[in-house]
């Protein structure tokens, strides 16, 4: 021991951890898997689902996401007893909710589904009263909420409170009546939600999902590509997901960027213009008060003659450019370069400044 390090044994192997770390953090830091559901590294610890239980010193069963490491501690992450406990927890979660993965928005991208597969649990015909809560399909611009798939892990509650600092979600009711509720109204669209989508990104099941992706492709059908958000100077890094038809269907905050995985409503949902059928594909020139389609040569010749005329008559500072957040960074760079080097003015502005 030294430098704040702790030595403990996990599954018979001696490992080191930092003082103050939990068993889960120590295990993950040493490449050892422990399943979790309510835990997420971006929010405070809850210790609610108990799927992460481990055996300590051959006698105590504790939740590894909340239990700190101590010097000389001996941890078993998955013996027969632990597996039985985890199976029981998963069986209860499945029994309570409506988990028909075939029709679920999270199929293939669900932490509950992965754990049920790992531990060999299938939905049973149990008599446990099933959740039959109304599905909120479309009250919100971007979110869909199906509480029948909610496992009450609380990740959305904490994500909204601690990351977006909105406190939209909370729990109401007790026992089998416990359920998720939003502020102001049961309908998420009538609540104070600002549609940042963080709760959806953090939900481990299909209880919360993005409307834009519904019916357009399940997790394994989508291709990921990373880009930078075009809307403001923060420059959030976004993982965009494209379906088989090449449509952009989903945006997730990327953990590598300055946004640390978070997005606001613009980065999250503001990509629909890319495939809008209202986009101009040909230049338009106003003739006799009407906009008419023109060739690129005709349009460029017109712009050159107009700009040259204004510059000659009134000087370069009589011209300014106003560029768009919907263009790429490179396109915006080119426009300011054109204004400075070709026109000869510093009159350059951008809508993201407003
Ligand atoms: S939430 Fe997960 S386990 Fe439940 S139906 Fe959806 S994919 Fe299956
Ligand atoms: S979308 Fe954002 S603001 Fe709305 S409930 Fe989820 S985390 Fe809170
Ligand atoms: S909606 Fe999702 S994140 Fe929120 S409590 Fe239910 S399962 Fe957890
Ligand atoms: S992950 Fe540890 S209690 Fe839920």
Account of the 3D structure:
The protein has 354 residues and is an alpha+beta fold. The protein has three domains: 5-78, Ubiquitin-like (UB roll), CATH 3.10.20.740; 126-275, 2-Layer Sandwich (Alpha-Beta Plaits); 284-353, 3-Layer(aba) Sandwich (Rossmann fold). The chain has eight helices and 16 strands. The strands form six sheets. A five-stranded mixed β-sheet has the order 2-1-5-3-4, with helices on both faces. Strands 10-11-12 form a three-stranded antiparallel β-sheet. Helix 2 (80-96) crosses helix 3. The longest helix is centred in the C-terminal third of the chain and has 19 residues, at 296-314. It is elongated and about 90 Å long. The structure holds iron/sulfur cluster (3 copies) and FE2/S2 (inorganic) cluster. One iron/sulfur cluster (SF4) binds next to helix 4 and helix 5.
Chain-wise SSE layout:
Layout: E1 5-10, E2 13-18, H1 23-29, E3 53-56, E4 60-63, E5 74-76, H2 80-96, H3 111-119, E6 143-145, H4 155-163, E7 169-172, E8 179-182, H5 198-202, E9 208-210, E10 223-228, E11 237-242, E12 248-253, H6 265-269, E13 284-287, E14 290-293, H7 296-314, E15 321-323, H8 329-343, E16 348-350
FE2/S2 (inorganic) cluster (FES) is lined by residues 36-39, 47-52, 63, 65.
How many strand segments? 16
Strand count, sense and barrel status of the largest sheet are: 5 strands, mixed
Strand arrangement, largest sheet? 2-1-5-3-4
- Please give the count of helices: 8
Quick tags:
alpha+beta, Ubiquitin-like (UB roll), binds FE2/S2 (inorganic) cluster, single chain, 354 residues, Rossmann fold, 3 domains, 3-stranded antiparallel beta sheet, 5-stranded mixed beta sheet, Alpha-Beta Plaits, binds iron/sulfur cluster
């Amino acid at each position: 021991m030294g430098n704040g390090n702790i030595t403990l044994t996990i599954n018979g192997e001696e490992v080191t951890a930092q003082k103050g770390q939990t068993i889960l953090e120590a295990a993950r830091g040493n490449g050892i898997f422990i399943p979790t559901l309510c835990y997420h590294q971006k929010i405070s610890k809850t210790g609610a689902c108990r799927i992460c239980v481990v055996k300590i010193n051959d006698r105590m069963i504790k939740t590894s996401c909340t239990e700190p490491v101590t010097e000389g501690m001996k941890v078993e992450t998955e013996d027969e007893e632990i597996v039985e406990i985890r199976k029981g927890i998963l069986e209860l979660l499945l029994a309570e909710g409506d988990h028909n993965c075939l029709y679920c928005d999270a199929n293939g991208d669900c932490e509950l589904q992965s754990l049920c597969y790992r531990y060999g649990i299938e939905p049973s015909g149990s008599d446990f009263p099933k959740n039959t809560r109304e599905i909120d399909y479309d009250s919100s611009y971007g979110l869909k909420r199906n509480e029948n798939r909610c496992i009450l892990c609380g990740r959305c509650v904490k994500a909204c409170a601690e990351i977006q600092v909105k406190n939209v979600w909370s729990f109401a009711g007790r026992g089998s009546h416990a359920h998720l509720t939003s502020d102001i109204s049961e309908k998420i669209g009538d609540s104070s939600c600002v549609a940042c989508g963080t709760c959806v990104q953090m939900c481990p099941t299909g209880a919360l999902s993005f409307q834009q992706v519904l019916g357009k492709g399940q997790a394994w059908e989508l291709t990921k590509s990373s880009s930078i958000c075009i809307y403001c100077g923060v420059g959030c890094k976004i993982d965009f997901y494209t379906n088989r038809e090449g449509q952009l269907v989903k945006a997730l905050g990327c953990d590598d960027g300055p946004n640390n995985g978070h997005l606001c409503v613009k980065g999250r949902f503001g990509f629909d213009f890319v495939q809008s059928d209202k986009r101009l594909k040909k230049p338009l020139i106003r003739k006799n008060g009407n906009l008419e389609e023109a060739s690129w040569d005709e349009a460029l010749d017109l712009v050159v003659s107009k700009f040259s005329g204004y510059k000659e008559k009134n000087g370069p500072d009589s011209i300014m450019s106003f560029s768009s957040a919907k263009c790429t960074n490179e396109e915006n760079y080119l426009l300011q370069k054109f204004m400075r080097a070709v026109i000869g003015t510093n009159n350059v502005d951008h809508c993201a400044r407003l």
